[in-house]
Amino acid sequence: MVQAKTWILTKHFDGFPKDSDFELKVEELPALKDGEVLLEAVFLSVDPYMRPFSRVRMNEGDVMIGTQVAKVIQSNNPAFPVGSHVVGRCGWRSHTVCDGVGLVPIMPEWPQDVSLSLALGAIGMPGLTALYGIEEILGLQKGETLLVNAAAGAVGSVVGQIAKIKGCKVVGSAGTDAKVAFLKELGFDEAFNYKTVGSMEEALKKASPDGYDCFFENVGGLSSSVALQQMKNFGRIAVCGAISTYNDSTPQTGPFPHLTMIFKQLKMEGFMQSRWEHKNPESLKRLMGWLKEGKLQCREHITKGFEKMPAAFMGILQGENVGKAIVAV
Fold it and tell me: Which of 40, 64, 139, 223 is 20 to 30 Å from the Cα of 168, by its Cα?
């Protein structure tokens, strides 16, 4: 019998998550039936979306939601041979028995010298989010100016790089000087530390005096209201996240953007990358192609040890990570 370690949500988060909201449990896994596989987690993803989604997609006592790269260690399913690797929404589990539904095999042409952890980052959900936000929502065109916040994170750092590949001016905001330096390494035209600038409005004006054609929104809250004021007429906003609001016990209020949106005739749309799942195989090949060409750089913030899942998760909500946060088992 194989034992699986699992992290349980013992209590729905009230404000910022606490250690006491999680419990590490051990369970005995059943023997495999026909068509089933046994997976062993290799890399697990921690992502900001887990904070709001836990409230609407989970009950207290459930295994925490999440995606992992896992190795097939036993198989009664010919589609998933022993030794192969898959991406699966198995949650915070060290081992999983499943029937293969929803598992995505790692692309066969995955280079030997590229870590499989990138299948949870730039060559995975965050990379797809960046790509679809830019192409499907914003329709970003060569020569336009793009603003992205939380720009040193898993999604934002890819957003900026894809925009540069497309021949655009890119302005990024981040929360530490080290992150700003990272953005400069990635080729961002302008980057600033929103925590230390005297005025967000002045920083945005200085970075792009003519305003912004497109805004890739990851943060929400007051800073976004300031950013909307700097949009050009007919500007487009892709709403991907609102991390500044995720841990609020009391919802933030105003200022409200409606008049700005009317006067500037702005277009704002929220999205999730799963809308274009049918495009994923080709999109992942495009992302991998940019990586191999040296046009896409990937920074990872790796925490070692399954027992550190809650700490790694809380760390991203405090902005500790540069690039994609990963837990290596």
Answer: 223
